[in-house]
Amino acid sequence: MADTILKLNNLRKVYIMGNKKVAIKAQEAIHKLHHAYEKAVSKNNTEKISEIEIRLEKAQDLFDKEKYVETYHFLTGKKIKEGKNEKGVVVHALNGVDIDIKKGEMVAIMGPSGSGKSTLLNMLGLLDEPTTGQIFLRGVNVTGISQNKLPEVRSSELGFVFQSFNLIPTLTAIENVMLPLRYGKTPRNERRALAEKSLRLVGLGDRLTHTPNELSGGQRQRVAIARSLVNKPAIIFGDELTGELDIKMTKEIMDLIVRLNQHGQTFIIVTHNPEVAKLCTRTITIVDGKVAK
Q1: Is the model's pTM score more than 0.90?
Q2: Is pLDDT above 80 for 1?
Q3: Is residue 129 helix, strand or coil?
Q4: Minimal CA–CA distance to 59: which of 36, 78, 31?
Q5: Taking burial as the number of CB atoms within 10 A of a residue's CB, which of 79, 98, 115, 241 is the most buried?
């Protein structure tokens, strides 16, 4: 069986909108307990881990039932009253998500608008922190990594391709592809050769010095893919990467993605396009913040 390269364990993400002070206090108490759990895990304190897991499960159950006063009292032993003027809404964007991604997979993530796909992509790409739960990358619990070290992890382990390409218009194709190498502290004298190799891999060896406005939509997306590849990441995330392309260009880009996947590159692709999903090795469907069974 292929190695697990990315694992999500009971991942939750809650957004509290407005002046919902009791919910905020309850969520802060849960977050504090979750950090204590991460500390116990790092020290392999099995007794403490088991104890906190029971408390977390109970607290999360109360919170999910909108019993914010009870949640806060259960975790802190302190009483709190809900104010008369508290207005707002609590959004459970992700609610207990468990996902395993194997090395070399090409996984599609689908679901209706508002289902939690974008939030999930942000969690997978380490662009946002979960409220509770754990994310393991190559077996390392990255939810416990300090914020100042996360950019280095993202730069070396993860690649991103977006619907709108996100290329810098004043830079050439090769200069755009070189950017991650610069941020990743690759020696200056190695950057150009690595970027050129990446562009040739996606079939743009003859477009190295072209700027984005001199390229077609499909070629721009190829530059974006080359940029995502250049650091040899563990995983490349695609966020509606064919959303701005016509049928012909979509086929060309997906043929390229499939070929790269066949050579071992792991992909996770968020898409609304069922034809794109069909080309993936499997599809994960998100509905109301949960993985559909």
Answers
A1: no
A2: no
A3: coil
A4: 31
A5: 241
